[in-house]
Automatic annotation (TrEMBL), chain B:
Lineage: superkingdom: Bacteria
Record-given protein name: Dehalogenase
Regions that span the bilayer: 6-21, 33-55, 67-90
Keywords: Membrane, Transmembrane, Transmembrane helix
Native species: Dehalobacter restrictus
């Protein structure tokens, strides 16, 4: 073949016929159209204006179309007169008074002088505590929590889409998880302390202020629960009961309190009643509310509710409201089975307050593990090797993990009954998760001298003056 | 990094197939199936191990990292030796020599 023929041949090889070109063009256009149609609605509808900007029906929310349970196998259950989620109700639940909570008893001196002095001096024993306490105190007054709604109700979408919008608003406020539930009446306190316990905890009132009982009157049908998860790396580096332990909680209390105050105010601006409940001023108990909102199950540690993805490594706030919403269903991800066989928290509890019982026992009309909350509160107040304690939060296999494929697989295994849970616990122990201290994340400073306090001097100082007197001097 | 590792895993998987293909065909079909099954299991466990060790080491889980090196590395090594023996990469030369003698 001559050179010219070769060139001619190669030109023919690379040529595209008009018919072929058109076919390719049509195919590409069809693929583009199909792609646009099949693209997630969140992209397609993002540019829509005002009330036509709606999440799709059946989604968790617009920002998170599906609930994120971190790989756990989750089933939906019901709330009725026999069950609150997976918690069995065995009789009438008597509403508790805030004055009977663990820290209230410590404040009242019923857990011993050391616990009382420890409670009073908590905010002075690590310099990270008071800044959070002050910030929470600033948003704990009733005027921050509740108020009259806007008399001109704004137009809002139907309850399902409004629920999705409320969840998105919570995510917008940087909350890690949110849920909506029907507010169980027994989850309200029977009465509040006046001033509330949180006011003492955050030093919003002088520590020697006498407290009375205030009835809870502001009851609303729905509750929105929001959780801020504690900093994982900090827990990985912490013993669980050192100087940063209290700040771990306080940071999340503060974040969730801010979110609750803003959420409640936003709902009032829409023209509906709303009351924020947070660490500085609760009128309700958070664990049953978390369960009612489909955000967890009760755990061995007593009255704490674990979420499938973040365990109970979080602090939560709530907003009660009459805004028309669609409640989420309570969830079952096998936590009861897991807690039955794991007992890692009981093994590691410095106060030995967590029970080794195999099964939950009747307690005030419901079944829960018989963990000694007073013992827990006494230790947390009087711990002088650090400030407070969160050892159970640190070691629980559901809490102590970064997001990775094998931890998601682990959560799936752990949510599949007792035998699978036993296997997961063994694997967890074999790899040393939870109990290790990853020192490369130890970013905070410690002042061990501050942890120690003189019980008598502290009690004397606080009985004589207001809150700003440091203890042990 | 993870994208690069996934790409690398894919390349290695294909390279492994090309490498053992000439020796994988056996006189019985079930033997061939076993070889390919062993290869896939070996490769999956080795990749899981690398990923597990990489993630745990980067987070700082010391015990998990060292345990995983022994666990996944050990299983991978055993499977690799078995596979190499079955494919004739190891343990056959000596036999041939003894036959010649």
């Amino acid at each position: 073949m001559s050179v010219n023929n070769k060139e001619k041949g190669s030109q023919q090889e690379f040529s595209v016929s008009r018919r072929g070109f058109l076919k390719t063009g049509v195919a590409a256009a069809a693929m583009g159209v199909m792609g646009a149609i099949a693209a997630p609605s969140k992209i397609a509808s993002a540019a829509s204006p005002a009330l036509t900007y709606q999440p799709a029906k059946g989604q968790w929310s617009k920002l998170r179309p599906e609930a994120n349970y971190g790989g756990a196998s989750v089933h939906y259950v019901e709330n009725n007169d026999q069950w609150l989620g997976t918690t069995k109700l065995v009789g009438k639940i008597i509403q508790t008074d805030e004055k009977d909570a663990g820290f209230s008893l410590a404040l009242a001196g019923k857990l011993g002088d050391k616990a009382k002095a420890g409670f009073l001096s908590t905010v002075f024993r690590h310099p990270t505590v008071l800044p959070f306490a002050d910030a929470i105190g600033a948003i704990s007054a009733p005027s921050m929590l509740t108020g009259e709604p806007n008399p001109n109700k704004l137009q809002i979408p139907d309850p399902e889409q409004m629920s999705q919008h409320i969840k998105d608003f919570a995510y917008y406020l940087n909350m890690d998880e949110v849920g909506i539930g029907n507010m169980p009446d027994y989850a309200y306190y029977g009465s509040n302390m006046a001033p509330p316990l949180g006011a003492y905890l955050v030093h919003a009132v002088p520590m020697d202020t006498p407290y009375g009982k205030a009835p809870i009157t502001d009851k609303l049908p729905y509750v929105i629960c929001m959780s801020a998860s504690m900093h994982l790396e900090t827990w990985l580096a912490s013993t669980g009961y050192d100087g940063i332990s209290n700040a771990q909680s306080e940071r999340c209390y503060h974040a969730s309190a801010n979110a609750a105050v803003i959420m409640a105010n936003y709902i009032r601006q829409l023209g509906y009643h709303a009351r924020a409940h947070h660490f500085g001023n609760y009128e309700l108990l958070i664990p049953p509310v978390l369960i009612a909102c489909g955000m967890g199950e009760l755990t061995r540690t007593g009255d704490t509710a674990a979420h499938p993805r973040i365990g109970f490594r979080h602090k939560s706030s709530a907003v009660t409201t009459d805004l028309p919403l669609v409640p989420d269903k309570p969830i079952d991800f096998g936590m009861q089975d897991f807690c039955r066989v794991c007992k890692k928290c009981a093994d590691n509890c410095p106060a030995q307050a967590i029970t080794y019982d195999d099964d939950p026992l009747p307690h005030n009309g419901y079944l829960r593990w018989n963990t000694d909350s007073n013992k827990c509160a006494a230790f947390r107040c009087s711990n002088d090797e650090g400030v407070n304690c969160g050892r159970c939060v640190k070691v629980c296999p559901w809490n102590s993990k970064e997001d990775s494929w094998f931890h998601r697989a682990g959560l799936y295994i752990g949510s599949k009954g007792e035998n699978a849970s036993r296997m997961l616990k063994s694997i967890d122990d074999m790899f040393g998760y939870g109990t290790e201290e990853v020192t490369k994340y130890k970013w905070w400073l410690e002042w061990p001298d501050l942890y120690k306090y003189d019980v008598n001097a502290t009690l004397k100082a606080f009985s004589a003056t207001a809150s700003a007197v440091p203890p042990g001097v | 990094m993870s994208i690069f590792l996934i790409f690398l895993a894919g390349i290695l998987f294909l390279a492994g197939i090309l490498f053992i293909k000439p020796r994988a065909k056996q006189d019985k079909t079930w033997k061939t199936v076993i070889i390919w099954t062993l290869y896939v299991i070996f490769f999956v466990i080795a990749c899981m191990g690398v990923s597990f060790v990489y993630i745990n080491a980067s987070v700082g889980h010391v015990k998990a990292t060292s345990t995983a090196i022994f666990l996944f590395g050990g299983i991978s090594l055993i499977l690799a030796v078995v596979l190499a023996r079955v494919l004739g990469f190891i343990g056959t030369k000596k036999k041939d020599e003894s036959l010649q003698a």
